[in-house]
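step 4 of 6: structure.
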Amino acid sequence: MKLFDILKGIEQGISEGDKNLGVYLKQKEEEKEREEKKLAKLLAEMEKQEEKRKKEVARQIKLKKEEDKILKSQENKFLAKMPILGKSLEDPRRKELRDEIEELVRLEQGLDAPELPKLLSDSIKESSRSDINTIRPKGKDESHLTDQEYEQGQKLLKWFTGGKMSDLPKSLVSGALELGEGASGLIGAEGVKQKIRSGKEAYEDFVGIDDRDALWASGGRFLGEMPVMGALGKVLKGLPLVKKLSKARSVVRHAGSGSLYGAIQAEKDDGDPIEGALLGGALGAGTSLVGSAATKLKGKGLEKMKKRASITDPKEVLRRAELMGEKATIPELVGDEKGINRLKKDVSRKNNSRMESVEDSIKSNAKKLHQALPQGEEEIQTLYKELQNLKGKVGEESAILYGNVKEFGLGKEGILEPDVLKSWLSSIKEHTSNIKGLPKLKVNGGSVKDVEKLMQFPPTDPKAYRDFYIKNIDQLPTADDFLKYRKKVKDMLSRADSTQASGLIELNESLDRIVKNVDRSGSLAKADKHYATKAGALNQDKVKEAINTSKFKESEKGRPKVSKVFSEQSAANSQVFEQLSTEDKKRVLGGFLNEALKEEKHPARAVADTWKALPDYIKLTDDLEVQKLLQEIKTMAGTNKTLSSLQRSTTSDIGSRPVGEKIRKNIRPAIYAASFLADPTLTTGIAAIDLGLKGVSRGRNVMLRNKWSQKNLKHYLKPELLDEIIRKKKLKHRHRLPMQILSSSNREE
Amino acid sequence: MHGKIKHLLNKHEEDFPESRELNDLSMEDLLSLGRIRPSKPLAMNTSYVLDGHHRNRSSHGKNYDHLLRDEEKDAIDEEVIDLSELAAMIHDPEFIDDMTNHKPSENQQMAQEILHHYLDTHGAIEAHPHLERELLDPLFNQLRDRLVEEGLIELLSEKMTHKTSHHPKDHSRMLKALILDAVYDGHQKDNWKKNLVNIFNKRNGL
């Protein structure tokens, strides 16, 4: 039966399996249905959503179209929701303000703004149609404004309009209050402050200010712009014209001026942001300037800044010059304390143009100086010729004067009186026993003994004496010979040793006495003075050589150098120079310059070398014209330092001067600092030239060096002695001395 | 200083009333010189010696420093005072010991301490060689260095050669020579040997 059971079981199993299968299938079908239902639901939902989306899209498109229509029709989104302001601008007295707003509109929309009255009238109509209550809250009436709110509103409106509207009716004020808040009513002064604070943060986020400490991000400026940006922002944000918004945002972010208009203007004109920042700083935050008001107030701001430019410390000026670059030559900007500390060094700026202009001005000044001094071979030849003429002229004068001495004193026609001759001979015999190398009485004449013999018994009759003298003229000395002898004795005396000096002095005095006895009119003194001051100097060997050689060799190779003749500092040279005419003196300076130009090509450096080569007697001349030229040369001499600092960085040497690393660094700030220090009113290369005189003087250098480098007595004492004394003091006073130089032994203690 | 001079003149006038006019003239003369600086007599003396003598008094009396600026004049005055102080200390040790000036310099204070140190330890006579080595030589070295390096006296001498045929170096050498003259004078008189005894006695109440 087991088989039967099994078979039954199998039947049962199959039936059960069939059952299960059926169930399974059922379940599956049910699941399927469920899923289908779900899917259907989902699909239905999706369809619904799609429909919704489509509807929304269609709605948005519709809105957009409508808004575009409105914008196009109005063309003034800015004034669209401000009917009060728009109405107030109809007043012809406020034409400027209207113009300014038109400008704003133009910039904002990039359109040429139509005539404002039409716009305003349209805007008024539109506003009358639109829901005014979105702007002005319900229940808020003009009469509810308190005095405080009125004042606040006035202030806001003033900022907005650039201070043009002073007395406004309350209706306008309330509108301004609404503007300031961004279309919601104000609650009072406190409320205003709170709104402003929160609004400020929102404003900054809106504009995207990164540097919250920037000058132009101060609260005052915000206050000035908030009325504008509040309303504008609200309008712009609501509209899909995001491009305009981004433009406005970038303009406001990048410009540093104190107003929206300034910012726009800065971008429009590709203006300098730093200048804008300074302008904003000068004008003070808190002004919303539009259009012409900006230019008017700019002048006032600069006047304020001018008062602040009073810096004398060169280090401070140098620091500011590093920050400001070329602008450091404008004293109004250098003195601005607020702006200076916020400026950052612009590494990209290059001031080669400035350096070049300074160098050019120095060169041009040097060339002008070159033209003032007569140069060239011809001029030098004329100088020597004039020198020769002068020598001749002065020589004639001297001959006349000494001729007078001879005529009215020593002897007419050159014949010496017997007394004079005898006293001369006796003085020689008396005083010259120890002296060697005395000159002869006459060049090719007799000795003292021979003359003595002849003059033993001279004829008493003047005529007979004259004939006697003429007969023995080869041996007997004349008045000329006497004066020559006297001159030679004086020359010997100037070079004499101590052994011979006393004899020569006595001889000299006796010779002078001889002449004084005979010369009652004092003509010898005059002649001597003339010779000492004028003629003697022109009889120098150098001058003679100059004249003689230039006579025969009229060329550059032949003639002697001007510096060879005039460079030595001596009394004789100064006498020669003073006797020259003004033109000839200038030729002398030109000669020095000529020689300097052969070695140094740069015109200013050549002038500097000329100054160095000039002797002191030329530098101290009394001639006014020449002094003026010398002063100019002297100032030019100071430019050498400036020129060295102007050398750009090069790898090769400039002429004979190697380029140092120190010169390459910090060139530009030094120039700007120098120009500011030299004269704050000058902004050209002249200021750099004056640096030699005013900016850094030799005395100041010496004083500074002395201050920092001079040693006290303790630097010369031995350290052991110093320690001992300090130790003694310590024991005496029992307190630490302020200045100690401790040796190793002292330190160990 | 003008006040003190006036006071002295007034005192003199009490005893000699006939000198009133002369005193007034001398005050005018003094005031006409302007602010008297310590470097002025030095400069005037130099210019007298080189150029002026008694004949060109007017050209070398008043404005010898008219080309200098005020800060340079002040610096020159300081330098002259420093140099003259050094020269005075080398000239006579009694100057080192003299502290009647209410603002003695650091140099003088240091020198006094060294002087007292050696006098106390060695006595008046035996201290002399030590002081010569330890104090006098350093003082002289300091003066020498100050005179040799380019100082402000060179600056003054350049401005003094306005109307002269002398080179500026002549004036600077003369200025320095006047300072060294004091040193030489003290060396000749042998002040350091003689006056140490006085200082020692003063210190010990003898």
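step 5 of 6: annotate
 - The radius of gyration of chain B is 20 Å.
 - Chain B is about 75% helix and 0% strand.
step 6 of 6: archive
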